[in-house]
C-alpha cells in the first residue's frame, strides 16, 4: 500500500473537480485565482517597496522564480485558443492593465505582455483592451523599452489587435496621434540585431500601413525604406512568409507618391534584394518552379520594379538594372516558367500579366532612348546596359527568347510590337526580330 497514492475519500465527488477545471485543461480555477493573488501581491510590493523590506534576498528570489514559472504556465495555457473563453471571468486584462505601470522586472513584463497577446485572440478580451484608452497608451508606451523580449511581445500584441476589423480603430487613432510611435519603430529597425524583433516590427508596420492609408502616406518614405533595408541586411537571408512580408510592405510603398519617390531614390539598393530572391526562384528549371510558394512575393516584386521604371526618364530606366544585371534574365526565366505551367496552374496568369506590363514598359523606354542616341553610341550598349538582350539573341536552347517576345506581345498591343521591332533593327537582333514578326 505504501507504493501508491492513497485512494480518495468515500464521499469524494469527481464532478466538483471537473467544475473547477479551466476548460479541458489540467489547471483549476483555484490555481489561477491563487496565481493572480500572488501576482497582485508582487505588484503591490514593488509599488510600496514592502517586498524588499519584509523578505530576505534569497526568499525574494525564490518567490520571484516561483511566480515566473507559474505565469509561464498561464502563458502556455493561453496559447490554446479553445480555452480563452473560460478565462473571461477572471478579469485578467483588467488586472494586468493596472499592473503594467508598476512592473519593473523585465522578465515578468515580457510574460504579462505575452499572455495579453494570446488573450487578444479572444473577441471579448480584445474588446476590453480596445475600450480602455489607458491600456492602449500603456501598451504603445512599451515600445520605448530597450528590452528585446518585451518589444517582441509588444509588437505581437498590437499586431494581433489590429487584425480585428471591429476593434482596430482606437489603436490606429492612438498610433496616428503619437509621432513617437514611428520614431521608436525606426529606432528598432536601425539598431536592433535580433531577427525575431526585426521581422516582428516589419509585420507590425505592414499591418498598420495596409489598414490606414493616411499613415501609409506619412510613413512610407525615405526614412522607413532606409530602415527596412538596414534591417533586411541585418536579418541576412529570410525564407517563406518572412521575406514575403517585406515584399508586401515595399508594395505598399509603390501605391503612394512618397513611397514611389523613396523607391526611385534607393532603387540601386532595393533591386539587389529582389535579385537574391529571384535567383532563388530560378534555381529550378522553368517547368519545375513552385509558383504557389513564390506567388505572393512575385506579385509584389514585379509591379514595384514596373512602378520605378515608369517613374524614371527613359535613359535612366534603360540603365537602372546595372546594380543587379541578373534581374531581367531571372524575370525572363520566370516568364518562361509561367508559360509552361499556365494550363495546369492558372494562378501564374496573374504573374504573366504583371510581366507583360513590365516588359512593355522596358521595351518602350529602350525604344525611346535609342531615338536620342547616334549609331556609334548604340554599339557599346549591347555589351553594357543591354547585354541581357544580346544574351537573349544568342539563346537557342532554353526557349527564353520566345518566352520573352510572347510575354511582351500576348495582349496584342501594336505599339509594343512596333517598339520591339524598332529596337531589334537598331541593335541588330535578327533572331528576336524573327520571333516578333513570325505568327505564332
Automatic annotation (TrEMBL):
It is found in: Nucleus. Keywords: Nucleus. The keyword Nucleotide-binding does not apply. SUPFAM superfamilies: ARM repeat (SSF48371). InterPro entries: ARM-like (IPR011989), ARM-type_fold (IPR016024), Synovial_Prolif_Regulator (IPR052464). GO terms for cellular component: nucleus. Belongs to the SAAL1 family. This is Protein SAAL1.
Amino acid at each position: 500500500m505504501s507504493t501508491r497514492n492513497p485512494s480518495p475519500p468515500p464521499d469524494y465527488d469527481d464532478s466538483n473537480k471537473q467544475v473547477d477545471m479551466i476548460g479541458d485543461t489540467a489547471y483549476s480555477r483555484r490555481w489561477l485565482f491563487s496565481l493572480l493573488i500572488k501576482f497582485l501581491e508582487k505588484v503591490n510590493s514593488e509599488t510600496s517597496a514592502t517586498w524588499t523590506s519584509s523578505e530576505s534576498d534569497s526568499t525574494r528570489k525564490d518567490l520571484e522564480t516561483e511566480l515566473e514559472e507559474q505565469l509561464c504556465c498561464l502563458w502556455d495555457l493561453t496559447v490554446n485558443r479553445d480555452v480563452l473563453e473560460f478565462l473571461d471571468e477572471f478579469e485578467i486584462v483588467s488586472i494586468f492593465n493596472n499592473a503594467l505601470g508598476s512592473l519593473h522586472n523585465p522578465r515578468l513584463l515580457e510574460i504579462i505582455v505575452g499572455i495579453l497577446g494570446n488573450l487578444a485572440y479572444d473577441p471579448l478580451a480584445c474588446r476590453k483592451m480596445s475600450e480602455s484608452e489607458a491600456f492602449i497608451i500603456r501598451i504603445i508606451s512599451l515600445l520605448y523599452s530597450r528590452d528585446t523580449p518585451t518589444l517582441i511581445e509588444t509588437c505581437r500584441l498590437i499586431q494581433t489587435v489590429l487584425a480585428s476589423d471591429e476593434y482596430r480603430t482606437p489603436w490606429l487613432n492612438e498610433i496616428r496621434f503619437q509621432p513617437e510611435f514611428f520614431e521608436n519603430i525606426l529606432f528598432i529597425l536601425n539598431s536592433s540585431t535580433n531577427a525575431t524583433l526585426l521581422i516582428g516590427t516589419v509585420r507590425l508596420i505592414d499591418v498598420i500601413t495596409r489598414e490606414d492609408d493616411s499613415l501609409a502616406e506619412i510613413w512610407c518614405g525615405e526614412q522607413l525604406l532606409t530602415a527596412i533595408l538596414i534591417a533586411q541586411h541585418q536579418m541576412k537571408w529570410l525564407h517563406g512568409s518572412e521575406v514575403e512580408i517585406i515584399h508586401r510592405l515595399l508594395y505598399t510603398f509603390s501605391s503612394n507618391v512618397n513611397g514611389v519617390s523613396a523607391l526611385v531614390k534607393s532603387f540601386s539598393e532595393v533591386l539587389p534584394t529582389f535579385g537574391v530572391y529571384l535567383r532563388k526562384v530560378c534555381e529550378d528549371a522553368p517547368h519545375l518552379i513552385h509558383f504557389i510558394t513564390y506567388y505572393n512575393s512575385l506579385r509584389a516584386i514585379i509591379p514595384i520594379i514596373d512602378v520605378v521604371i515608369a517613374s524614371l526618364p527613359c535613359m535612366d530606366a534603360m540603365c537602372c538594372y546595372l546594380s543587379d544585371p541578373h534581374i531581367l534574365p531571372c524575370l525572363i526565366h520566370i516568364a518562361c516558367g509561367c508559360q509552361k505551367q499556365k494550363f495546369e496552374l492558372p494562378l501564374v496568369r496573374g504573374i504573366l500579366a504583371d510581366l507583360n506590363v513590365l516588359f512593355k514598359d522596358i521595351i518602350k523606354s529602350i525604344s525611346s532612348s535609342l531615338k536620342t542616341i547616334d549609331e556609334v553610341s548604340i554599339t557599346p550598349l549591347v555589351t553594357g546596359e543591354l547585354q541581357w538582350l544580346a544574351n537573349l539573341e544568342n539563346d537557342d536552347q532554353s526557349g527564353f527568347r520566345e518566352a520573352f517576345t510572347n510575354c511582351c506581345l500576348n495582349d496584342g498591343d501594336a505599339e509594343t510590337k512596333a517598339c520591339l521591332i524598332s529596337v531589334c533593327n537598331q541593335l541588330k537582333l535578327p533572331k528576336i526580330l524573327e520571333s516578333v514578326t513570325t505568327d505564332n
